[in-house]
């Protein structure tokens, strides 16, 4: 089983120079990219143990680490961050080819708000203060802002000592109708993100399950071939021993026949001598 082979992707028109993946001249999505959308740490370990490359890139120049950030898959993010030495394209603060940092990718996560926050907690400590400031100005979620505030050295624009006594942005209160519409849209977006996340997770699990099944089949086939090879060797040894035994018994029979022939010859010669002495004695008595 080769987990480094590309998944089936729709061809995209290229723009500018493409980055190369770790697995060949053309970038492609591997099984590890697919698993990074929704699989757990054990699945990541399994694919890595089978030769999957954590530094490989898709056609969009995204590594499996980047995919795990975009799909708010905290277990996968945690796994990639734990790899030592750090694989190329898995650095917690280095931007991908299009300029988005891991923190930015995490903010764009397709998971629920709780999952986005969980992933942000894993990468915020390695983000630069400048990146955190940019994300702060674009973020509206209180949960996200709480995580960003935990960045050492970062002071929110409205915090004391930050050089501004009021928030950088203000807005008029929304009407109840607008609030309901906003909440409805937010709920629809979260539902769509949840459905997409569940589908990606199911697809990734299915692919990994198929990979494990192929691995088991390959292992069983190798075992059968090994057992057949052992049987042939044992059969060859048995036949060789039987031939050696047959030859030994043939040699023993020939030796016994030779001894019997020699004994018979001696007996005949002895009887002839005895007969000769008897006739000689009778001849002397007649005289």
From TrEMBL:
It holds the Pfam family Ank_2. Residues 11-20 have a biased composition (Basic residues). InterPro entries: Ankyrin_rpt, Ankyrin_rpt-contain_sf. The keyword Glycoprotein does not apply. Residues 1-27, 152-227, 262-287 are annotated as: Disordered. SUPFAM superfamilies: Ankyrin repeat. This is Uncharacterized protein.
């Amino acid at each position: 089983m080769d987990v480094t082979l590309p998944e089936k992707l729709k061809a995209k028109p290229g723009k500018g120079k493409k980055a190369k993946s770790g697995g060949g001249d053309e970038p492609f999505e591997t099984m590890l990219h697919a698993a990074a959308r929704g699989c757990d740490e054990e699945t990541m370990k399994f694919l890595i143990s089978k030769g999957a490359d954590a530094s490989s890139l898709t056609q969009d120049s995204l590594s499996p680490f980047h995919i795990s950030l975009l799909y708010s898959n905290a277990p996968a993010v945690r796994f990639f961050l734990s790899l030592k030495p750090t694989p190329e394209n898995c650095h917690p603060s280095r931007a991908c080819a299009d300029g988005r940092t891991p923190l930015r990718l995490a903010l764009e996560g397709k998971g629920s708000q709780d999952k986005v926050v969980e992933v942000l907690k894993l990468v915020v400590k390695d983000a630069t203060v400048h990146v955190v400031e940019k994300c702060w100005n674009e973020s509206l979620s209180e949960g996200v802002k709480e995580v960003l505030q935990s960045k050492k050295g970062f002071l929110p624009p409205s915090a004391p000592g930050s050089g501004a006594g009021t928030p950088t942005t203000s807005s008029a209160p929304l009407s109840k109708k607008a609030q309901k519409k906003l909440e409805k849209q937010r709920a629809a977006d979260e539902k769509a993100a949840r459905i997409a996340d569940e589908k990606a997770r199911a697809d990734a699990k299915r692919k990994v399950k198929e990979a494990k099944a192929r691995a088991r089949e390959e292992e069983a086939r190798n075992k059968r071939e090994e057992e057949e090879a052992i049987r042939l060797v044992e059969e060859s040894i048995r036949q060789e021993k039987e031939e050696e035994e047959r030859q030994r018994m043939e040699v023993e029979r020939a030796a016994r026949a030779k001894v019997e022939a020699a004994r018979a010859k001696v007996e005949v010669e002895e009887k002839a001598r005895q007969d000769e002495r008897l006739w000689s004695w009778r001849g002397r008595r007649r005289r």
